[in-house]
Amino acid sequence: MTxxxxxxKFFAATDVGRVREHNEDNFLVDKKLQFxxxxxxxxxxAAGEVASAIAVRAVHEEVKKEREMxxxxxxxxxxxxxxxxxxxxxxxxxxxxxxxSKVHEAAQSDDGKRGMGTTLSALLLLGHTAFIAHVGDSRxxxxxxxxxxxxxxxxxxxxxxxRRGKLTEEQIAKVKQKNAITRAVGVYERVDVDTLTxxxxxxxxxxxxxxxxxxxLETADELADYLVAEDGQAAVRGLVSLANxxxxxxxxxxxxxxxxxxIDDAKERAARVxxxxxxxxxxxxxxxxxxxxLMRVMQVVEVRAFANGQTVITEGEKGxxxxxxxxxxxxxxxxxxxxxxxxxxxxxxxxxxxxxxxxSATVTSAGSSELxxxxxxxxxxxxxxxxxxxxxxxWQFLGVLADRLDQTTSELRDARMKEIEQDxxxxxxxxxxxxxxxxxxxxx
Length: 444
Known about the structure:
Helices cover about 40% and strands about 25% of the residues. By secondary structure, it is of the alpha+beta class. Strand 2 (about 25-30) and strand 3 form a beta hairpin. Helix 1 (about 45-65) packs antiparallel against helix 3 and helix 13 (about 425-435) packs across helix 14 (about 435-444). It is elongated. Mean pLDDT is about 90; it is low at about 1-5 and about 430-435.
């Protein structure tokens, strides 16, 4: 089984466009680190070019300082050298914050550059894992198995209005400056950074692009042929030509990254990633999430293996985890009574995500099984940081609670009817109501 990082091919192109005099975009391709950045600067008198250059350089320098840590993650180091996904995401966020501080400092020291800033979209590939840091309206797309999806969110006035649900699409179309960005590196001393991690597969393709290209796209599907083209350099040149052909009103920059390799476990891993995604997407509380939102949930999922008979949770004990059966099956027990058996796709313990209550039953593994696990702390972090995602999840959660209430009400009604039936002793009632008739019947 191959465990070394999957080889990649990359292609880049940048162009001033048909309107601008200067190219204020900057980009980075670091083959050794497998690290890619696109920045789109803003500010008068070439200040945007300065901002994007400072940001690219600062982020690159900070990430290079931790090369050894990144290598430890890629080779799966254990013990004191173990590096987690959260460690890598924290490094990327720190690097962007460092860049933000440097751009802001440069702007404050030169009146001609005050207010300058830049977007930033970065992709880091480590072994089988992709990491993303993102600020602004440059974009990262991914092509996988024939489908193209945007995996970053535009930080624009329009998106903010949509997220808050304040205006209809028709009203938003009339808003001036609706494409103005709401986050940028360097405008202030700090900035909110979106980070994301997910498993990467052989055959995946990524496109990092400034809005000089993406602003001309109607849908992500327009990119499909370019992202899978065998001639990657021709593909990025074609994307530049597409943008120029539709107006070229802004600078155009794009980086195309192909994940190569025919590794031994590629098909198995692809099937496993698809299985995890499918199981998660079918859960009621996650059923309405978009692909990028589902990826944010998947990054906090842990997969645990259980042996036959091993206890997963114990009745009466408090817990803080949701469990979803990925493979195998589990038995649900109350006392010595088996209440149910859950198979792939079925879940238990979702109430533990919102409050600490004793488990209502014991669950044990029926044979070997694998369970997907989401911890309450990670769930709350998603709710705090991803407002639009939080609204969808909590709305679905209300539906789950309503269904549970209906089920409980029905069970209580059925239980009450059984009690009433058991209280009615037909023979005794006959004796009490018709004592004479009963005694005559006895003499017969």
